[in-house]
Design brief:
It is a single chain. The protein has 5 helices and 19 strands. The chain has about 375 residues and is mainly beta. It has a 16-stranded antiparallel β-barrel with strand order 1-2-3-4-5-6-7-10-11-12-13-15-16-17-18-19. A 3-stranded mixed sheet has the order 9-8-14, with no helix packed on it. The longest helix has 6 residues. The chain starts with about 25 loop residues before the first helix and ends with a strand.
C-alpha cells in the first residue's frame, strides 16, 4: 500500500535542482502494474556501495563501503507549485544555529513558476554555482575535486530565475553563507593569519552569499554552458569571491565537459590550508588571501548498448599570499577511469569498476611531503525510483 502511493518526477528543469533523471520505470509500476497518473509525490532512494582497495602512504587497505544513502521526495502540487526534499541518512541530524537545518538535509525547497519564463524558489537550496561536476547528482561522482570536496553548498536562501528565451537562463540567488554561526562552522576563538599578524575573526552582521548565474544552450543543445560569479561574507571585513565556468559538449553517445573554478578568500573558506598546516600558528586559525584554482575535465562515451566509459582528470593549485612560505605551495593532480554497465534498461542502475588516483605536490618552502593515493572500487550506484 505504501509503494502504491508513490510516484516519480523528473529532476532538473531549473537552477539548483542538479542533474537530470531519465525516463525509468518505477518499482510500483512494475509491482502493481499501475500506470502513473500524476507527479504530486515522487520518492527516490539514492544508494551507492562497493568493495574498495585503497592505498595511502604506501599501505593498501580493503573494505566494503556504503558511500551514499539519500532519501528524496519531490513533486508538482499544481502546474506552477513544486517542492523537493533530499536528506542524507548517513549524516549528523543535529540542527545548526544559523538556518536551523541539519547538515544531513541537502534540500528542502518550495518553488513557484510564475510563467514559463520566471521561477522563484526558496528554502534550503543548492547554491547556484556553475560547472558540471558541481551540477551532477552526488551519488554518481566517484571522487570530487579537492575544491568541490571542501565546499559548503546547501544553504537556506532564495533563487529567482528568468528564461528570456527557452535556451537561455539567468538567475540570481541570496542565501546564508553557512548552516551554522561563525563559531559553529570554524570553532571558538578563531584567528585570521594576515600578512601583518594574527587578527580575531568577528561574526558578520549580514553573513550572506550573493550569486549570479547563466545557463546557456546552443546548436540544438549540443553545446551547453553553466557560468556563475558570487561573493560570500565569511566574517566582518572578510569575504570569499568565486567564479565558475562550465562548458559541455552534449552528443547522443558522447558527452564531454571542461570546468574552471576559482576561489579567492579573505578567510580560508575551504580549509585545505589548515588541514595541510595544522601547526602553522597556535590555536584555531584560518589564513587570509588564499587563492584556489581548479580545472576539471570529464568524458562519458556510450561505446556499446548498456555500456559507458568514463574518464576524468583534475588539476588544482593553492596559493596563500599572506604567508611567504605558502606562496603557490600546493599542486594536486587527479585522474579517474571507470567502466560502467547498465544491466536493466528500465532502472537507473549501474555496476562499475573504477580506478581513482591522486598526487599532491608541495613546494620546498612549505616543508611538506608529497602525497599519493590510489583506489580501486567494484560496486554499484542505484537511483531507486519507488513509483
Amino acid at each position: 500500500m505504501l509503494i502504491a502511493t508513490l510516484t516519480a518526477h523528473a529532476q532538473g528543469g531549473n537552477v539548483g535542482m542538479g542533474g537530470e533523471d531519465g525516463d525509468y520505470q518505477s518499482l510500483a509500476e512494475r509491482l502493481a502494474k499501475v500506470e502513473k497518473k500524476h507527479d504530486m509525490l515522487d520518492i527516490y532512494i539514492n544508494y551507492a556501495a562497493g568493495a574498495q582497495a585503497a592505498e595511502d602512504g604506501g599501505t593498501w587497505r580493503t573494505r566494503f563501503a556504503n558511500r551514499e544513502l539519500r532519501l528524496e521526495l519531490k513533486g508538482n502540487l499544481t502546474d506552477k507549485l513544486y517542492y523537493r526534499l533530499r536528506h542524507r541518512l548517513n549524516r549528523n541530524n543535529k540542527a545548526a544555529g544559523l538556518d536551523n537545518f541539519a547538515k544531513a538535509t541537502d534540500l528542502m525547497l518550495v518553488g513557484y513558476d510564475f510563467s514559463d519564463k520566471v521561477t522563484l524558489m526558496a528554502g534550503k537550496v543548492t547554491q547556484i554555482w556553475g560547472g558540471y561536476e558541481y551540477d551532477e547528482n552526488p551519488m554518481f561522482v566517484y571522487k570530487y575535486s579537492d575544491m568541490l570536496d571542501h565546499m559548503k553548498i546547501f544553504q537556506a536562501g532564495a533563487v529567482l530565475s528568468v528564461k528570456p528565451v527557452p535556451t537561455q537562463e539567468l538567475a540570481v540567488m541570496v542565501s546564508d553563507v553557512n548552516n551554522g554561526t561563525l563559531s559553529e562552522e570554524y570553532g571558538e576563538n578563531l584567528v585570521i593569519v594576515d600578512e601583518d599578524g594574527l587578527k580575531p575573526a568577528v561574526e558578520a552582521n549580514n553573513p550572506l552569499t550573493f550569486i549570479a548565474n547563466w545557463n546557456g544552450s546552443f546548436f540544438d543543445n549540443k553545446l551547453q554552458t553553466r557560468w556563475a560569479w558570487g561573493t560570500q561574507k565569511e566574517a566582518r571585513g572578510r569575504s570569499s569571491r568565486m567564479i565558475t565556468l562550465g562548458q559541455k559538449l552534449n552528443l547522443p553517445r558522447l558527452q564531454w565537459y571542461a570546468d574552471y573554478m576559482g576561489e579567492f578568500d579573505d578567510l580560508d573558506r575551504l580549509g585545505i590550508v589548515t588541514e595541510d598546516m595544522p601547526g602553522l600558528v597556535d590555536g584555531n586559525f584560518r589564513c587570509s588571501k588564499v587563492r584556489y584554482n581548479t580545472f576539471i575535465t570529464k568524458l562519458n562515451w556510450q561505446f556499446a548498448p548498456q555500456w559507458n566509459l568514463m574518464l576524468k582528470g583534475t588539476y588544482e593549485t593553492v596559493d596563500v599570499k599572506s604567508v611567504e612560505a605558502l606562496r603557490d605551495y600546493r599542486k594536486s593532480y587527479g585522474w579517474i577511469g571507470s567502466l560502467e554497465y547498465y544491466p536493466d534498461k528500465t532502472q537507473d542502475l549501474r555496476v562499475f569498476l573504477a580506478y581513482m588516483g591522486n598526487r599532491v605536490e608541495y613546494s620546498k618552502a612549505s616543508n611538506l611531503e608529497n602525497k599519493n593515493t590510489n583506489r580501486v572500487e567494484l560496486g554499484f550506484m542505484y537511483r531507486i525510483k519507488c513509483y
